[in-house]
Amino acid sequence: MTGVRKHWLSSSVPVIALLAGGLLLLALFLPGPALATRLAGDNAARLPALQAGTVILRLALATTAGLLLVESYGRRWFDSPGLPPAVTGLLLGPERWVQQQERPRHRLLAGLVILAAALRLVALNRDLWLDEIATLVEYARLPFLETVTTFVSANQHPLYSAFSSLSLSLLGESAWAVRLPAVLFGVAGIPALYYFARVLTSEQEALWATALLAVSYHHVWFSQNARGWIGLLFFVLLGSGLFLRALAQNRRATWLAYAVVMVLGIFVHLNTLFVFLGHLAAYLFVLPRWPGWARQHWPLTRRLVWVSLLTGSLSIALYSFILPEMVVYYQTADRTGVGWANPLDLLAQVTVGLLAGFLLAGLLVLGPVMLAGLASYWRQSRLLIGLLIFPAGFNALALLALQVGAYPRAFLYLLPLGLVVAVRGAFVSIGWLAGRLAGAAGSWLRQYGGAALLGLLVVASLLSLIPYYRVPKQNYTGALAYVEERREPGDVVAAVGLAISSYRVLYAPNLAFPETAEELAALRGPDHATWVIYTFQRDMRIRYNDLYNAIERDFTLEAAFPGTVGDGTVWVVRSKDGPG
Q1: Sheet containing 492-495, strands listed edge to edge, beginning at the edge strand earlier in sequence
Q2: Which residue, of 32, 100, 345, 560, is most buried by count of CB atoms within 10 Å of its CB?
Q3: Which residues neighbour 223 within 8 Å (Cβ) at sequence distance 6 or greater?
Q4: Assigned domain for 416 exists
Q5: Residues near 154 by Cβ (< 8 Å), separated by ≥ 6?
Q6: Cα–Cα separations (whole angstroms), residue 64 to 70, 97, 250
Q7: pLDDT given at position 579
Q8: Can you say whether residue 129 is alpha, beta or left, with left for phi > 0 and alpha for psi between -120 and 50 degrees?
Q9: Which domain holds residue 524?
Q10: Mean per-residue pLDDT, 393-398
Q11: Same domain flag for 123 and 230
């Protein structure tokens, strides 16, 4: 072990034991009733759920303490070499890098981080869209402690809500302030991808994948989206990099760091749980490739079981106060029209999104190189293939079990891994083509062709940002300004469907908000015009069909204000009766 730097956690049993003791004392002496009463405040209806939360927290803390003690004093159960490179396909062995001759180009990586930050700050203060408004109104405006102990809708991504609450308290309320945590998560995701990719592939390929993520339309979009999706992406990248290193080296410090990162990922978005389960499945997937695995794998497998239990207990501790309300919400919430239940419809939405992010030329290049990259990594590292397949599989099974549709963003964690695969595929494809060309052409292609092809993808991604910056995610203020410029005195302005949520709580609380066709009809009259603003036509047809039919029959389309959210165009219509 000469030359290998030891982490202070790797050999310090008392530190872990002291932490376990502190958690156990907290579990025993936590002032549960007083804490629940304080959190409930004047809302006595929440008190039973919060009291249940204190019980859950105590049990989770005690379980965590027990798990830490088991690891501290039962290390012989877990100590063993990690998986060898022949099994993992990683550039990392049990003790050190296999390829030490390459050094990271820190200046280039720093330049990509600066570029990513600049791209994510452009047009940051434009209109919030529907889900962001829910984050702002339902969570970010709450005091910090209430933010992480309240659950009233699926827009609660607790860690993001906490950061956005802090941002608003420091910077005041604005669109850019509530989105600032997303920007920070997005920028942090750039070096996180490099950290993940570098253990799988060369520095050149890792930097190209990082460059593609830095200019990615989708990554920029979610880095300006005040929800937990981009935080999920950051923690998944960092956690996946730690997971690969932990498998290769089986060091306590790395496993503990991995557990903490995945817990934070689960706290920022529950979909991280699918990635965590996918990691465990990927380990089982490659285990039979380990020579003599039937005799040797038990210490490492026990370590993964321990990490799984620790991750679970810590996640339950963080969710303890909102878990009772979550259960009630998902048992009673109306999920009508949520997502696309038909796989073909979902595939169509994914295709539309890819076209927006890479343009047609980039998408035509991306398909073949992805296949080539998958074939290459199948030969090198089945672990990476497992990290792609298993989380998506668990995600799909959960959607089927819950009988709800899916949005493409539910599988967002595949984006950066897909870029790593695409970069490999570009070099493999060009290498294959160069091998079939003789002379200077083949030599030039072999030397420069991969970079040229990836450069085209970078350019396509940058070009896709031009139309993205031209319009907001949803243009609520633009639609309202249009109406205000054209309405006559006495005209009625109304918002219907999901547009009610946006205008009533944020942009125009003084509008009329009819919820049925009859209420809308009551607003009309021969002496004035009635203006209606609505959005999400698909949802209007499914949930508000009578209202939508009345609009189609009795109103004339005046204007449409497109946005980058799918089906998020804001429509303005005017009644056919009335003056003019």
Answers
A1: 492-495, 530-535, 570-575, 555-561
A2: 32
A3: 120, 182, 183, 185, 186, 187, 189, 230
A4: yes
A5: 329, 333
A6: 10, 33, 20
A7: 65
A8: beta
A9: 476-575
A10: 91
A11: yes
Q: Are residues 419 and 562 in the same domain?
A: no
Which of the listed residues 444, 470, 496 is the one where a domain comes to its end? 470
User: Residues 227, 357: one domain?
Assistant: yes
Average pLDDT for 237-256? 93
Helix (H, G, I), strand (E, B) or coil at 448: helix
**What domain count does the chain have?**
3
Cα distance between residue 424 and residue 444, in whole Å: 18
* Chain-centroid distance, C-alpha 167: 19
Bridge partners, residue 572, by sequence: 533, 559
* Residue 580 placed within a domain: no
Rounded Cα–Cα distance for residues 200 and 232 (Å): 21
Residue 96 lies in a domain: no
Q: Mark whether 133 and 234 lie in a shared domain.
A: yes
**191 & 318 share domain:** yes
- Answer for the pair 316, 56: CB distance below 8 angstroms, yes or no: yes
For residue 434, what are the contacts with CB-CB under 8 A and spacing of at least 6? 442, 443, 445, 446, 449
Q: Tens digit of pLDDT for each residue in 289-346? A: 777 766 777 888 889 999 999 999 999 999 999 999 998 888 887 776 666 667 777 7
Entry pTM = 0.92
Q: Where are the beta strands (DSSP E) in 496-546?
A: 530-535
For residue 258, tell me if it sits in a domain: yes
Provide mean pLDDT across the span 77-84: 82
